[in-house]
Amino acid sequence: MKHYDVVICGGGVIGGAVAFALSRNRDLNIALVDFKKPGNASRASAGGLWAMGESTGLGCGVILFKTLSKQLRQGADVSDASAMKPHIMPKPFFDLAMMSNAMYPALNQELLEKHGVDMKFEKTGLKFVLFDQYDRIYAEHIAAAVPDRQQHIRWLDKATLLAEEPNIAPDAIGAMEFDTDHQINPYRLNDAYVEAARQNGVDLYLNTSITAIERQGHRVTGVQTSRGKLSAGMVINAAGAWAEQINLWATGMQMPVFPVKGQVLVSERLPKILNSCITTSDCYIAQKDNGEILIGSTTEECGYDTRTDLNQLKSLARGAMKTIPQLRDMNIKRCWAGLRPGSPDELPILGPVPGIAGYLTACGHFRTGMLTSAITGKLLNELVRGEPTSVDISPFLYQRFLHDKGEKADAAYSVTASSSSENRIANS
Ligand SMILES: Cc1cc2nc3c(=O)[nH]c(=O)nc-3n(C[C@H](O)[C@H](O)[C@H](O)COP(=O)(O)OP(=O)(O)OC[C@H]3O[C@@H](n4cnc5c(N)ncnc54)[C@H](O)[C@@H]3O)c2cc1C
What we know:
Mean pLDDT: 91
Low-confidence stretches: 408-428
Helix content: 25-40%
Radius of gyration: 22 Å
Bound molecules: flavin-adenine dinucleotide
Shape: globular
């Protein structure tokens, strides 16, 4: 049986980011184990680094806005616009998202220069294109809800919008732009992390299922896989929408991570028709580095179902054609559905689980795993090494789901990784 200091369960963008961050110093024995289940999120993603957008309910959260605005449009009373509460994420998440976002230029350079892998990082900005007074009022609500982030918000009148994005429909009335929000290619980011980790000495167990987690008392000691057993000083759960099963094996406790389906359409390659990423009250639209136009996405809680649905796809396509009329003539090349790893409060679940040694979670990244993968890698690296974390992770701990006071009181713990490198995790 092979022994590792750290075994990472799941090789999506989160497992990849953690493997890369941990392997930078080349001082740990690390294994990354992954079996691509249908619907794995990282290969379904849009690749938006929309730190402001996702923290204020745009991006995929635009669906929430759509529901509210539909109600308003039916009532047609603008004074009701106060009902259009933007979906602002709590400050700890907002800060985490912005911090992770800020890491990408340097990360991109490091991956390119040291490892020869290219995530196709593009500085685009994210424009919320406005078509009517409801869109404008909603945008104003968002801006008002983030008074400390005004420097990142730019308002574009119609003439400026059409000058910057000549292919946007002329009936658009303007836009609100977040200058912080950019994009990468999600496949390439995932592959870049995994390849860089491999170059740093991480053993990749691909097409390999984890079938159980080994425990001795309250310590996790390894994993069983379809290719045999691996013993481990530390096991990290980065299994995306399937993280609960790993957690059950590791701790005997449930973890509220569940699949949230997102459907996406992708066009054939087109000449450059967009300079920025676009979001509207119907969909988001991003032209990727290879010319394809990606149109997303739905937000559906329907278990592990990865089927696509023509009505949903038509609705996304209609929204895209309304925004960019020339898309009427494009061909759709692919459509798919992926499973975001949702959590009840939409926050990731990071760090130790009370009372269980040798085990850390890196899951529940819901609709921002691309964006927050960089900071997740950094934090997990700090946790494994017993270093103070660069962000207060208390809002993201599994512990927040333990409602029983007794359980929380028992949660003062000191977890030591039984690794050959004597890495230590101490939390209380
Ligand atoms: C349609 C859509 C659009 C999105 N757009 C964006 C976006 O624009 N920006 C953004 O930041 N985020 C976006 N997201 C969210 C983002 O894709 C996810 O948050 C992120 O990919 C989660 O990564 P992960 O590594 O946790 O999960 P995954 O990518 O699902 O990886 C988990 C891996 O673990 C494997 N696994 C699970 N169980 C086992 C087991 N027992 N044995 C072996 N392997 C196992 C899975 O098969 C999978 O390969 C989007 C998601 C979707 C679905």
